[in-house]
Amino acid sequence: MNTFLNYLFSATPGSQMEFYIPLSALALFLVFASIIFSIIYKNRKKKDFAFKRIFKRTSKTIFFMGFALGIYLLVRYENIPYFSMRLWLYVILLLILFFIGWYTKAYFKDYPKEKNVVIKKAKSVKKSAKYTTSKKRK
User: Fold this and answer.
1) For 82, which DSSP code?
2) Of 105, 117, 103, 109, the residue nearest 48 (C-alpha)
3) To which H or E segment does residue 103 belong?
4) pLDDT tens readout for residues 33-50
5) Exposure of 73 by Cβ count < 10 A (0-12 exposed, 13-18 middle, 19+ buried)?
6) Distances (CA, A) of 129 to 53, 58, 86
7) What value does the CA radius of gyration of the chain take, rounded to a whole number of Å?
8) For the whole model, what pTM was predicted?
């Protein structure tokens, strides 16, 4: 147990890491995915209120995860004490997995329910007579 904690909380874990290329590819993928999702969100928010409400912060979250992973890789490459601990890598990867699960659940469970509620609300709203201050023309 002590060796595992020492492995996890080692202040300077060393510069030999074999995952620079896959993790940097993941960081770049997350940044580009946030840009693509922001374009998709911008187009869909005009038509789909449920999508607009549920996925408002998704592109910012994806960008933050990619940026945090990129910063960690730079810090790990420079071997800066306490910032290059393996703990931060595991925390970032767990956050990425958590948000993947969160948004997957939101897309497959919450979004269809919210979309049905919005459609029912739109159908139930009746057009009422418009009252104006001007007189009607004859």
Assistant:
1) T
2) 117
3) helix 86-105
4) 999 999 999 999 989 999
5) buried
6) 30, 40, 65
7) 24
8) 0.80
